[in-house]
Known about the structure:
- There is one protein chain.
- Helices cover 39% and strands 25% of the residues.
- By secondary structure, the chain is of the alpha/beta class.
- The strands form two sheets. Strands 6-5-4-7-8-9-10-11-12 form a nine-stranded mixed sheet, covered by helices on one side.
Amino acid sequence: MSLNINKKKISLFTNQNFLKYIFISVLSCLFLFYIYYELIKRDKFYNVIQNISEKYNYQLKNVEINSLQRINKFEVNNIINQYYSQSIFLLPLEEISNSINQLSWTKDVNLSTNFIDKLNVEIFEYEPIGLLFYNNQLFYFSKDGKIIDKFREEINESLIIFYGNQASKEAYNLLTVINKTETVNMIKEAYYINERRWDIKLHNNILVNLSEIDIEESLKNYIKLVKKFNYSDIVTIKSIDLRDNEKAIISFK
Length: 253
């Protein structure tokens, strides 16, 4: 008799597992049905808001974009055009912001509405600090070394061209030093040598080897040295080695 009772207990235990499986399956179905219902309800809600907005003219009709130097406003309007006449309350601002952020020169973007009919677009653009020579092409890059876009010849600006591995990462530090000296507008190109130190090529085509330790002192020494030469002498100079701030080695053409 006790043996039969034990068998029944085992049978009941098995049935409990089966019931647990059924319960989880039913619960999952109910959850999916709930999501489906909520989606339908949301669509109905959107339709109600859109209809009310159309009735009382709360639709996107105007877009105001701040002045831009690099980004073409046509590209921005291309992103926004699909949302014209949509309820001002239903504009997917995050989606629009993400699309604008995909434009090459966009650093950040702020979007806001007047809750009537206008979208305000404020775009912050990257500011290039130099041009990087890479794979036989020139690229604009930012102070943190981020490559922004390919060089465009139609934009007239005086940016130093940088060469060498990791040059774009170290360029900002070099420019910070250069801006403290009189050489700020003299430099045409900069070469990052062995990821350790810099050579610079000036607009007068003189190549200057800079100290690894004290770049500013090297630049000041160049200014002092070149003042001792007249123009006819300067044009004959090929390079000046200022790696040792105690001496200068001049090579002539």
